[in-house]
Structures
1.
Amino acid sequence: MKSKKSKTEQRALKLILNAGKEGLLQSELWKLLDISTREASRIAIKFEEKGKVRRDKVLNNGRWTYMIYSMKEYVTLKSIEGCPCTICPDVDRCFTGGTKDPRTCLDLTAWIDPRTESLPFSKILVQEEAVIL
Ligand code: SF4
């Protein structure tokens, strides 16, 4: 069973994540969570120290506060739009070390970095997890 503190932190993280690129004022966070300013500050600092958020000091209605931005974003289907794997007939046979291998697939490489499309395969150095031109 989760403690009240961790539930509050989860709600805080979700609110910050949902705020997206706009960010969320720290002074709004405590109101939305119905917690004290001190508790909101503690949570925000903790998240910042863990690299979960970035805080920028801002002047809001004549008072200093922080704008909090999530360091994560929701993954959307747009991020895989056009990926050749989504319509590839070989997807079931494609794996690292297989006859079809994502590390050496030119279609996938060209989708990840369209600059490689015009290069001969010999010019593309495919390493474990990265494609280097
Ligand atoms: S990496 Fe290439 S071969 Fe493998 S599923 Fe994707 S498009 Fe098909």
Note: Strands lie at 24-25, 53-60, 63-70, 125-126, 131-132.
2.
Amino acid sequence: MSRSRASRRSVAGGIGLAAAALLAVAAPVPVSAAPAPADAPTAPVSAASEDYYAPAQGKTGEALKAALHDIIDNQTKLSYRQVWDALGDTDEDPANPDNVILLYTGRSQAKSEHGGNLGDWNREHVWAKSHGDFGTVTGPGTDLHHLRPTDVRINSIRGNKDFDNGGDPVSGAPGNHTDGDSFEPRDAVKGDVARMILYMAVRYEGDDGFADLEPNDRVGNGSAPYHGRLDVLKQWHRQDPPDSFERNRNEVIHRHYQHNRNPFIDHPEWVEAIW
Ligand SMILES: [Ca+2]
Ligand SMILES: [Ca+2]
Ligand SMILES: [Ca+2]
């Protein structure tokens, strides 16, 4: 596998050089005639999202949260079975279309290697599904905005713990830490985790048969519909802003699956405006 990855990388490098040469040749062409850039899937996000968020513009606090809820609760809902294929799309490795990137380990693994055996990847509920007890029926338990591929063993170690700093290193998952009541993901996904939790708080307000999910500043929330710790999540949100992988994920979910967005990826400043 490592050999094929290496050869893919060198092929990609060759394409990159060829593309660079083409761009150099194409440079004198007027801007209006230029072809769409290679990363076009992420380019229209901001333009599309200004229309999408129009009812929320200029609001703060509870009014902003309520406006965003009204916007993002218009969505298509998946079955738990459909989530497998969807994650293969939303979390695809940009360097290898056969693979997904696992959230906590950062490992690139074959999309086909999902299941319940050691070494497989499975469907992690970043908002632990016992917090509000929503399970895996269609609803919050199948909402792609907080579902991520993870290593089966690491998913089990994270369990339903709240998020907080500290603990011992998690073996086999460099940068992750855990203790008896909390889990700290690696730095590169700290902000992703925070924005997923805060999306869930806005999306689920108790008006659709499921619990009203809310962040709080505690650990050990158990089955209560709360997730901690808010102060730490806000810090993680600031230190790990959205990157192209996370923005693309939001775009794929919006365009191809649920037709709703995570507002905190598009407008990071809205975290402070609400909390
Ligand atoms: Ca702890
Ligand atoms: Ca990140
Ligand atoms: Ca809520």
Note: The mean pLDDT is 87.
